[in-house]
Amino acid sequence: MDLGIKGKRALVCASSKGLGLGCAEALAQAGVNIVMNARTDGPLQEAAQTLRDRFGVEVVAIAADITSEEGRTKVLEAAGEIDILVNNAGGPPPGMWSDWDRDDFISALDANMLTPIALIKALVPAMMDRGWGRVVNITSQSVKAPIPVLGLSNAARAGLTGYVAGTSRQIAPSGVTMNNILPGIHATDRAVSLDTGVSTQQGISMEEARAAREATIPARRYGTRAEFGATCAFLCSQHAGFIVGQNILLDGGATNATL
Q1: CATH fold for the domain made of 9-185+223-250
Q2: What is the pLDDT of residues 75-96, one digit of tens each?
Q3: In a 3-state reduction of DSSP, which class is residue 165?
Q4: What number of H helices and E strands is found in the chain?
Q5: Rounded distance between C-alpha atoms, residue 229 and residue 86, angstroms
Q6: Per-residue pLDDT tens over the stretch 197-241
Q7: Dihedral of alpha carbons 82, 139, 74, 29, sign
Q8: Could you tell me which of 4, 32, 38 has the C-alpha nearest to residue 19?
Q9: I need a surface site. Which of 17, 82, 141, 156 has the fewest CB within 10 A?
Q10: Please, are residues 249 and 184 in contact by the beta-carbon 8 Å criterion?
Q11: Beta strand pairing status for 84-87 and 133-138?
Q12: How far apart are CA 40 and CA 249, in angstroms?
């Protein structure tokens, strides 16, 4: 399918690996020029060159902490005119409700709520002026069904979801759509980290830890970054202009909910 976005320009945050890279790859395959961002320069530059070689698009790679004001300024100054924004940032650490204090919540809100909002406010007005734009926020399946040990993430991402619900409907008349993708477990470094924790706690192998987690997913496997990226690219396409303010679950059926 021709997504109709060849020649557009996208900013994809946290895109040197994992789900962010999957989104950057799928958009580049559709002919979109990419501005990539991540904290660590080496892997970022390597990923950027791979996209240039594979898809022949322009790729600008900016190493910066997107969750800091200084980092956002650096990225936005280098990014130029952006048609597509993909917000993404790693989640805060797990724990128990009694473990967290105010500073923990502020840190989580900065990374997973306030940073996406800052980028939306910086880039969406120009999209509205041009009459076209796409924003996709990568949140979590925990927005639909909270995960007890991820209370910091539950709170911050739910806050972003509420903001998007109202804002998406205000910007839609100008031809700009905004939606969220809610990933379940995917075969990324995050999955390795979670499985390592289970392996250590339960004294089982990594293979056993993964198999046990896969057994809880109706699809009986982890998602891939390629299929996640394809969903993101479709939401950014010319065909998705009537999808506004939605929360799209990509979790293999793991969230047991009717709606």
Answers
A1: Rossmann fold (3.40.50)
A2: 999 999 999 999 999 888 888 9
A3: helix
A4: 9, 7
A5: 11
A6: 889 999 999 999 999 999 999 999 999 999 999 999 999 999 999
A7: negative
A8: 38
A9: 17
A10: yes
A11: parallel
A12: 29
Distance CA 248, CA 169 (A): 16
d(CA 150, CA 162): 18
Q: Residue type at 17?
A: K
Pair 75, 58: CB distance under 8 Å: no
Q: Give 226's strand partners.
A: none
pTM of the model: 0.95
Q: Which long-range contacts (CB under 8 A, 24 or more apart) does 240-246 make?
A: 240/134, 240/177, 240/179, 241/175, 241/177, 243/177, 243/179, 244/168, 244/169, 244/172, 244/177, 244/178, 244/179, 245/164, 245/165, 245/168, 245/169, 245/172, 245/178, 245/179, 246/179, 246/180
Neighbours of 165 (CB within 10 A): 15
- Domain residue ranges of the chain, discontinuous segments joined by +: 9-185+223-250, 187-222
The alpha helices in the chain, defined as continuous H runs, are 18-29, 41-55, 69-79, 102-109, 115-130, 151-171, 189-202, 206-214, 225-235
Of the pLDDT bands very low, low, confident and very high (cuts 50, 70, 90), residue 259 is confident
Q: What is the DSSP letter of 29?
A: H
Identify the pLDDT of residue 233.
Answer: 98
Tell me whether strands 84-87 and 176-183 are parallel, antiparallel or unpaired: unpaired
